[in-house]
Amino acid sequence: MWDSIIIKPFINSLLLIYNLTGENFGIAIIVFTVLIKAITHPLIARQIKSSGALQDLQKDEEYLEMQKKYKNDKERLGQAQMELYKKKGIKPFASCLPTLIQFPIIIGLYQSIIQTMGTAPLQVFNLVSKIGLGMSNFFSFIPSVKNPFALIPLNNQFLWMDLSQPDRVYIPGISFGIPVLAIFVVITSFIQNKLISPTGGDQQANQATGMMNIYMPLLMGYFAYSLSSGLALYFAISNVISLVQYAALGRVKLKDIFKKKAAPTKKLSA
Amino acid sequence: MKKNITIAALLILIIAATLAGCTSTVGASSSWPGLSVGDDLAVVSYGYQLYALDVQNGSKVWVFPAEQEKNVIFYAPVEFAEDMVIAGDYAHNLYAVNDNNGSLIWNFDGAESRYVASAFYKNGYTYAPNADEKLYVLDQNGTLQWVFQTTGPNWSKPVADEQYLYLASMDHNVYALNLTYLVSDLVADEEGTKNLVEKPIWKTDLGTAIVSDPLLVDGFLYVGTIDGKMFKISASTGEIVWMYEGETKIKSVWTKPVILDGVLFFATEDGNIFALNSETGASVWDSPMATGSQIVAGGVILTNSVGFGTIDGKLVIVDKDQVTSPSLSREGSIYTTPTFKDGKLYLMMVGGEKLVYALDENGREFWSFSTEE
Known about the structure:
The complex is a heterodimer.
Chain A: H1 2-20, H2 25-39, H3 41-57, H4 61-69, H5 74-88, H6 96-116, H7 121-128, H8 134-138, E1 157-158, E2 161-162, H9 180-196, H10 203-226, H11 229-248, H12 254-257
Helix pairs in contact in A: 1-2, 1-6, 2-11, 3-6, 4-5, 9-10, 9-11, 10-11
Chain B: H1 2-22, H2 24-27, E1 34-37, E2 41-46, E3 49-54, E4 60-64, E5 79-81, E6 84-88, E7 94-98, E8 104-108, E9 120-122, E10 125-130, E11 134-138, E12 144-149, E13 159-160, E14 164-168, E15 173-178, E16 186-188, E17 194-197, E18 202-205, E19 215-217, E20 220-225, E21 229-234, E22 240-244, E23 258-260, E24 263-267, E25 272-277, E26 289-290, E27 299-301, E28 306-309, E29 314-318, E30 324-329, E31 339-341, E32 344-348, E33 356-359, E34 365-369
Antiparallel strand pairs in B: 1-2, 2-3, 3-4, 5-6, 6-7, 7-8, 9-10, 10-11, 11-12, 13-14, 14-15, 15-18, 16-17, 19-20, 20-21, 21-22, 23-24, 24-25, 25-26, 27-28, 28-29, 29-30, 31-32, 32-33, 33-34
């Protein structure tokens, strides 16, 4: 079911884009990621707005007062927070729902890219079994659209990379390869995390956020370093598009990126 | 304080597990094992070693290399070549191994990619197709004689008659080449070495990639393609005699076809077995035989019937009148083309209790082998 609803349509779309973009898989990954991000933009916009409103609320005087007033009564604090959300028109779970809806799309996109890049027999066998003629028949009015089977094996070469292999750039005089894309993924993940993480929370929350801001980019960097560069390219493009989306919605404040978080509010619990 | 940090750590772990889970196929097995059966030995190519088994009782005669090495991985079936077996690995090495004791005779490391297909041996020459878009031809000592450049990876074992060598490539073409070339017939490669064949005797474009081994019978090649077509091609001219794609489009062909009593049998990826008149290409049956499971392994000719192994672990047996015999099955999946030789049927099962079974046609077991033994 997962294959029929998500993976097969994604793989066939990816092949169609590959076909229409000069049979370069790197360009196909970029275009496909941009398209998926554009399609899911309304959901992301809703999520960004909701989480932004929640962040802004944490600086609200009424909110801060309430934290002080009910610091020893969590139940009452919860009720008061819900009333405040209602009063300000904030739906606290509105930022979760778009994330949940996007999640299968992101995982599907990610799996489709992995499966389409296969260069060994078992991988190509699995890929070929998912190819259908529907998409190419539908777009057959475009003269350059080929039978998708004729596209196999795919051209995995993009810039300096073989997209089915981990990315390394070898520079004369240096004995090891430099993982350029992995470094780019770490930097863009760091910036993205910095921009989306909530500010002005309590000390505990800020510590947890700080931990995420450091470990998540490192984790993404590790995956980009050790997996095929096609996936690293997807991570990189995805991060860049997310930054553009945040900027378009006015949530990017470049000065915040390397600035320490604002002084935390006092720890609430005794 | 601990609670928030624990949540953050858990979140990182969940994301790591999700990403790792989604990419689990990347590091997993990338192909299926190879099996070659000679007069005395059955050689299994699977993972880090080759296992040579005595065909009489399945006992291990030798393994190669004696100790596992990190980058040496075998999937391509070996080729028997007089007193050697020729084996290509997934790095870029082609080994000639003494068939008596498994000792290394020579090693050719001139390729740049993996050996997916078996090499082919004839008259002292080894013809080794590689995924680096080249066919390497070596003499008895493993010295490179000449190279043929294709424009796609080569995953099919070449075949030959007394006149030409035939190579089917993922670049969509079938090529005919001379069996030998004089140095004066060759041109310089990128590095200036004069070892490259300038052009084939003929080439025929079949439209999509060829990943299955071609069959050569009585001057004709039978070749299946990944877009679900079966071709009969004249070996002398490269002319397409007929092409079969079914009334409704059939699925991709990964199996080497077989011919029994003038009927060509092949199977498609979705598990349908087809029987065609090898002369005319017309379907012999009213409809293909559905096995209910995917098929990637080539057909095997039994006494009066043919068998096709399925991924759900059955060897489906059928004759030209579409009369079936009870399927043979063992635990695991069949990806490797079975062999029937001297009354023994060799089945290779992936993911089962045992890796190789030697059976009679009724499924009675002579012996079985597991790499753990």
